[in-house]
Design a protein that fits this description.
- The complex is a heterodimer of chains A (about 220) and B (about 140).
- Chain A has helices at about 1-5, 10-40, 45-50, 55-80, 100-105, 115-120, 120-130, 130-160, 170, 175-200.
- Chain A is mostly helical.
- In chain A, helix 4 packs antiparallel against helix 8.
- The longest helix of chain A has about 30 residues, at about 10-40.
- By secondary structure, chain B is of the alpha+beta class.
- Chain B contains five helices and five strands.
- Chain B has helices spanning about 5-25, 25-40, 45-50, 55-65, 70-75, and strands at about 85-90, 95-100, 100-110, 110-120, 130-135.
- Chain B is globular.
- The chains are: A mainly alpha (about 220), B alpha+beta (about 140).
- The interface between A and B is large, with 43 and 42 residues.
C-alpha cells in the first residue's frame, strides 16, 4: 500500500485537490445562487438539486473543456512546433512525427514496449495517437455538455425576463456561449505559452517541468 | 502534468442529461398551473385565478388597480380558456404557451409553480414579451 502511494503520489494528490476544490465550488456556488434567490424573494435550492442544475454544470464544464483543450493542443502542437531552450519542447531538429526507430514502434519496439506499439496497421495507428484521442474526446464531450448546460441556464435567464427560450442550435451562435468558452480558452493559451517561454530562462530545482538549474538557456527539451 | 480520470467527466455528463430529464418531468406541473389559471379566468373565478399568481404579481396588480386581486384580475379581461400548447422549463423558471391565450411566465416557489406574468405576446425577436400582467 505504501509503495502504491509512493509510486502514484502525484496523481493521488491531484485527485484529492480536484475533489476538495469541486466540493468547495459546489458549496460556494450554491450559496451564491441562493443569495440571488433571496434578491428575487425566491426559495433556496437544496445542495442535491444544485449539483444536477445547469448553474453548477456550466460553471464546472466551461473550465473542464478549456483545460482538456489546453492539453489536447499542447500534445498536438508540440509534435511540430518547437521553442528553443524550453523543457516543454523537443530539440529544434526533431520537429515532426519522428522515425519509427526514434519512437520504438513496429520492428524497432523493445521487449518491454506496449503490445500495441509492436503491432502493425490500425492498432498501432490508434495507440500512436491514443493520448491525443482520449484528451480530445474528453474536451469535445465536456464542451458539448457545457453547451447543453449553458443553453439551459441562458434560457432560465430569458424566461426570467419574459423572453422566449432559444433552441440549443440557436444558443451555439449566441455571445453567451462564446464568451463562456473564450474567456477560458484565452487564459489557458496564456498559461501554456508563458510556461513554454519562462521555462527557457527560469528554473525550479527538482521539478521535471524545469530544466536542471545549471542547464544553459539554449538547452532544449532537457529535463532533470 | 497530472493524469486526469475520465470518470468525473462522465459523472457531470450524466448530471447534465438528468437536468434535461428533470426539466421535461416538470412540464406537466407547469401545464397544470397554467390550465387552472386559464380555466379560472374563463369562469371569472378571481379567487382561483389569484391563487395561481406569485405573491409579488398579485400585490403589483392590487397596487396598480387599487382593488383586491380577485376583482382586479377579472377586470383585466386577460385571454381566458384555451389549451396549453407547450411548456418550457429551465432551472427555476418556466413558460406555458396557451392556444389563443398568449404566453404565461412562471417561477418555482417553495410549494410549486406560480405565475409571474400573464397575457404575454411577442413583440420582436429577442425582446421581452409585452405582458398585460407582470410583477
Amino acid at each position: 500500500m505504501r509503495t502504491f502511494l509512493r509510486h502514484n503520489s502525484l496523481s493521488i494528490v491531484f485527485l484529492g485537490l480536484f475533489l476538495a476544490a469541486l466540493m468547495l465550488q459546489a458549496f460556494a456556488g450554491l450559496a451564491d445562487f441562493n443569495e440571488d434567490q433571496d434578491r428575487h424573494a425566491s426559495p433556496h435550492m437544496t445542495l442535491g438539486r444544485y449539483l444536477v442544475s445547469s448553474e453548477f454544470g456550466t460553471a464546472v464544464l466551461e473550465n473542464w473543456q478549456s483545460e482538456y483543450l489546453q492539453f489536447t493542443l499542447f500534445i498536438l502542437l508540440t509534435v511540430w512546433f518547437v521553442q528553443r531552450g524550453s523543457p516543454e519542447s523537443k530539440p529544434v531538429g526533431k520537429a515532426g512525427r519522428e522515425s519509427d526507430s526514434d519512437q520504438q514502434v513496429g520492428p524497432h519496439a523493445t521487449p518491454r514496449s506496449p503490445r500495441w506499439a509492436k503491432a502493425d496497421g490500425l492498432r498501432r495507428r490508434i495507440y500512436e495517437n491514443s493520448l491525443l484521442l482520449v484528451m480530445g474526446t474528453i474536451w469535445l464531450g465536456s464542451w458539448f455538455a457545457q453547451s447543453i448546460a449553458g443553453a439551459s441556464q441562458y434560457n432560465a435567464e430569458r424566461l426570467d425576463h419574459s423572453q422566449a427560450p432559444v433552441s440549443w442550435l440557436d444558443y451555439l451562435g449566441r455571445p453567451d456561449f462564446w464568451e463562456k468558452t473564450l474567456q477560458n480558452w484565452q487564459s489557458e493559451f496564456l498559461a501554456v505559452g508563458s510556461m513554454a517561454i519562462l521555462a527557457v530562462y527560469l528554473r525550479q530545482r527538482g521539478s521535471p517541468e524545469s530544466k536542471p538549474v545549471g542547464a544553459p538557456h539554449e538547452a532544449t527539451g532537457t529535463e532533470s | 502534468m497530472a493524469v486526469r480520470s475520465a470518470l468525473p467527466t462522465l459523472a457531470v455528463l450524466a448530471a447534465v442529461l438528468s437536468v434535461g430529464c428533470s426539466a421535461s418531468d416538470r412540464g406537466p406541473d407547469v401545464a397544470a398551473v397554467a390550465d387552472r389559471f386559464q380555466s379560472a379566468l374563463e369562469s371569472r373565478d378571481g379567487e382561483a385565478a389569484c391563487a395561481q399568481l406569485s405573491e409579488q404579481t398579485a400585490s403589483e396588480l392590487e397596487q396598480q388597480e387599487q382593488r383586491p386581486c380577485e376583482e382586479a384580475i377579472v377586470a383585466l379581461e386577460l385571454p381566458a380558456g384555451g389549451e396549453v400548447a407547450s411548456t418550457s422549463v429551465y432551472v427555476t423558471s418556466a413558460s406555458a404557451v396557451v392556444d389563443e391565450g398568449g404566453t404565461l411566465f412562471l417561477d418555482e416557489a417553495a410549494d410549486g409553480w406560480e405565475i409571474s406574468a400573464a397575457g404575454c405576446r411577442p413583440t420582436a425577436p429577442d425582446l421581452p414579451y409585452d405582458c398585460e400582467l407582470e410583477d
